[in-house]
Amino acid sequence: MDGERAVGQPVVFMDCRFYRGSSPCEPHKRDGRSCPGCDLYDPIIEHVLLIKLGAMGDVLRTTALLPDIAAAHVRPAITWIAGRESLDLLSGNPLIHRAVGTDAAMPLLATRSFDAVYTLDSSEEALALSRAASARVRRGYRSGPHGTATGVEPGGDDTLFRIGLSDAAKRANRRSYLEMLLATAGLSYSGHRPAIALRAEAVEAVRLELAGLPRPWIGVNAGASGRWQHKRWTPHHLTRFVARLCDERMSTLLFGDGDDAVSNRALAARFGPHVRSIESTGRLDRLFAAIAEVDALVTSDTLAMHAGWALRRPVVALFGPTSAAEIDLDPDDAKLHADLPCLGCYRSTCDIERHCMELLTPELVFDAVRTRMALRRA
After folding, report:
1. Number of separate domains in the chain
2. How far is CA 314 from CA 144, 263, 305, 309, 332, in A?
3. Contact criterion met (CB below 8 Å) for 87 and 98
4. Do 88 and 230 have their domain in common?
5. Which of 219, 260, 312, 341 has the fewest beta carbons under 10 Å from its own?
6. Residue 8 domain-assigned?
């Protein structure tokens, strides 16, 4: 036990994962317990650094790898460096000791050393943070003299690195992203889900807001980031799909922020009380709480899709320029994509008139929702 005593003060075990140094630990705040003899004493043996930046959806799905990473170490404390916007979705994860934004990472790296660093991001920013980290073992992506990724550390599988350099290789790939990502670190993915810690107050607020809304509740997240022109479902198809749900006496919960939230509000006003726009801009806890309540979720390849999987909701996912094969979902979940030779092109723009998302008709999506809900009930 790594117990230390200041003059005139009781022994405090500073190697415990509950210890914070600048404030009383959570167990003490909860019931006033003292450190010696505490049955929650949990000594840290290994300190592990994980670097994963990128979009929030990518960060969320990477939490599925934490159980396998933790199992590779002895009583680890995992510190995760992510973009500031992703810190909220990492909050409450019992396998993460500390989540740090990139803006606060350098003071940490200048004063700490780690037993292992996992660099699970090939961006130059992530690689620079990795180089700044003092670590006994390095796993995942490796940077070269120009600051860019040149492969993976010894013992890792470089498949994900190699296919990331070729759109044709991405299109031909059939291995899951999570499997390949953990393989860069020389570990095997056991199939865990991403983890979301729902906040009770957000869940209660959503349930109160939706009280009296007839079931079933179909969540719809038709939007996506602007990185790829046709990653989002078409507004015309979305409108017809919502109309079909209303005709079938199904209620619709519309998710999205920015311009998508504006469109969602207009749809809710047009179709009446059975269609609700869930306003969640800047409120991930509210978004996750609402997704947790739906009876099925229709979503493009975005954060909502990974959240639906994490929260065990029946998912119907819509794919166009990105790869459906790389995405991990439940076996009964539906991955809808058009029969086009250019599918999974990863091109930012497209000049095809009847493009991939245009071919995913409201009728096709509705049939997939009905089938997925029937499988859920079986």
Report:
1. 2
2. 43, 24, 10, 8, 8
3. no
4. no
5. 341
6. no
Q: Does the residue 119 lie in any domain?
A: yes
Check whether 2 has a pLDDT greater than 70.
no
Give the DSSP letter of residue 334. Answer: E
Tens-digit pLDDT profile for residues 76-116: 999 999 999 999 999 999 999 999 999 999 999 999 999 99
Task: Give residue 191's identity as a one-letter amino acid code.
Answer: G
Look at the alpha carbons of 322, 325, 329, 330 in this order and tell me if their dihedral is positive or negative.
positive
> Among 47, 52, 65, which Cα is nearest to 130's?
52
Query: Are residues 69 and 148 both part of a single domain?
Result: yes
Which residue bears the tokens 């602007």? Answer: 226
Which residue, of 183, 210, 244, is where some domain finishes? Answer: 183
Domain stops at, among 150, 183, 216: 183
Distant-in-sequence, close-in-space partners of 310: CB < 8 Å, separation ≥ 6: 60, 63, 64, 193, 194, 195, 196
Residue 264 and residue 262: Cα distance in Å, rounded?
5
DSSP 189-222: ---PPP-----HHHHHHHHHHHTTPPSPEEEEE-
The first and second tokens of residue 206, run together, are: 């959503």
Query: What are the beta bridge partners of residue 275?
Result: 252
pTM of this structure: 0.90
User: pLDDT tens digits, residue range 155-186?
Assistant: 999 999 999 998 888 888 899 999 999 999 99
Structural domain harbouring 106: 46-183
